Every structure is written in structure tokens, then in C-alpha cells.
Amino acid sequence: TERHKILHRLLQEGSPSDI
Amino acid sequence: HVFSGKKTTNKVVSHLILVEPGEVFATPDPSLPDSDLRTLTTLCELINRELLMTIGWAKHVPGFSALSLVDQMALLQSAWMEVLVLGMAYRSLALSDELAVGGNLALCREQCRRSGLLHLHAALLQLIGKFRKAKLDREEFVVMKAMALANSDSTHIENTEAVLSLQDRLHEALQDYESEHHAEDPHRSGKLLMTLPLLRQTANEAVRTFCQIRLEGRIPMHKLFLEMLEAKI
User: Fold this and answer.
1) 8 Å CB contact between B147 and B171
2) Cα distance from B77 to chain A (closest Cα, Å)?
3) Fewer CB near the terminus (10 Å): N or C of chain B?
4) Residues in Cβ contact with B231 at an 8 Å cutoff, skipping those fewer than 6 apart
């Protein structure tokens, strides 16, 4: 998940901040 | 839209209609000259926003959020471009030889040629032609989009049974809708499913095109778009 951290975060938290 | 569907009693289909995201509008940078660079910059920024919406949408596909986080990631990393391409194809049904990349942006063949998107333009037109011939309606479009997501064939899936069950649920919804609204053609759901290989082929062409654009390094690309492209390599 380190390589795919934005997708991981969006799925888990749904907080787009630095996309 | 060209082919408006009818009210359906199928709960999965009506839910997918309800959660269908609104249109995304292009915001070209006025400081850039009107050129292929501006077209591609606008397009890449638009795709990044569409990706954000697609991830949000996927969470509302019935059964998707019940999958493990690993499987949710595997499906999205594999099928995101198919979902985007299907959306673009559906938006383009009313146009002739143009690609509706955003609610306010359609690209003609010449613009695509200048921007290095000629192969992609041709591939998309073939797909659009197929959907136009089938008179794909909005209900069918939303179910097909969810099916493209569930049918990713990713090798990273942990719980195959759960993904197969999601596929079955969507397939049942499509069959249910077709028996309700297209009873005159018992082969219709099969015909629609037979467009999925061309959808994947077109999405692969799109991924190749944007990987090339990324390699050339002339166009700024947002982090999410880069991450999703990297997942396809």
C-alpha cells in the first residue's frame, strides 16, 4: 500500500488533500 | 442523453442511477496558449478529478464496500481506465466523430491528432459506434460500468468468491433490467457483455497513450493519476 498510498487513503478515509 | 432509459424496479439498477456522479467540466488554464500542450494539460487535470469521483462512486456500487480494502484497491487499480473510457463513450453517443472528454469539452479528430491521441480517438470511435448501434441506455450504462469494475481480472484479488458474488449480483441486475425493458431481444444482455473486450482493449490503448505522455514529461500530471498509471505498469 505504500506505493498506492493515495488510493488507499481515499478508500479508507475519503479525504482528498494532496491529490 | 440520446437513449433515455425507463424507470426500473430493479433495486441495484435504480441505486446505480442514483449514485451516478455528475458531469466533470474542463478548466483550461487561460495562461497557456491554445495548443496541443493546453489540450493535454486540460485533459490530464480532468482525468485526475474523474479518478477522484470514480473512487467515490465505487464505494457506492452495491457490494463493493463489503470487499476487503486489498480487493477494493485491486479492482480499482485494474479497471479505473475502463470505467473512465466507458463514461467518455457514453457521453459521446450524441456526437459524431468527437470525444466528449468533459461536460464542456469535446475533441475532434484533428485536435486528437495534434495532441498525439489519434490512435485513441480511432479506438474510442469504434467503441462509441458499437454502443450507439446497440442504443445503450442510461440504466445499461451504469450497470456496465459497475460490471467493468467487478470484472477486472486482477491477479491481486484475495477473496475471489466475494468478487465473483459481486459480478453475479450485477449480472442478475442487468438480466433483470433487460427482461423488464427489452423483452423483445432475449440476447440483449449477451450483446452488451460482448462489448467488454473492446472496452478493455480501448482502455489499454488509453493507458499506453498516457504512459507515453508521462514518459515525455511535457505535461504536468497530478499525483493520483500518476499513482493509478503506475499501478497499470
Assistant:
1) yes
2) 9
3) C
4) A3, A4, A7, B77, B78
Q: What is the pLDDT of residue A1?
A: 56
Cα–Cα distance for residue pair B87/B100, rounded to 1 Å: 9
Mean pLDDT of B151-171: 96
Asked whether residue B188 carries a pLDDT value surpassing 50, the answer given is: yes
Residues of A with CB under 8 A from a CB of B: 1, 3-8, 10-12, 14, 16, 18-19
For residue B160, give the amino acid letter.
Answer: T
HSE toward the beta carbon, residue B45, CA cutoff 13 A? 14
Place of cell 451504469: B142
| B59-88 per-residue burial string, b: 16 or more CB within 10 A, e: under 16 | eebbbbeebeeebbbbbbbbbbbbbbbbbb
Q: Which chain A residues are closer than 8 Å to B228 by Cβ?
A: 7
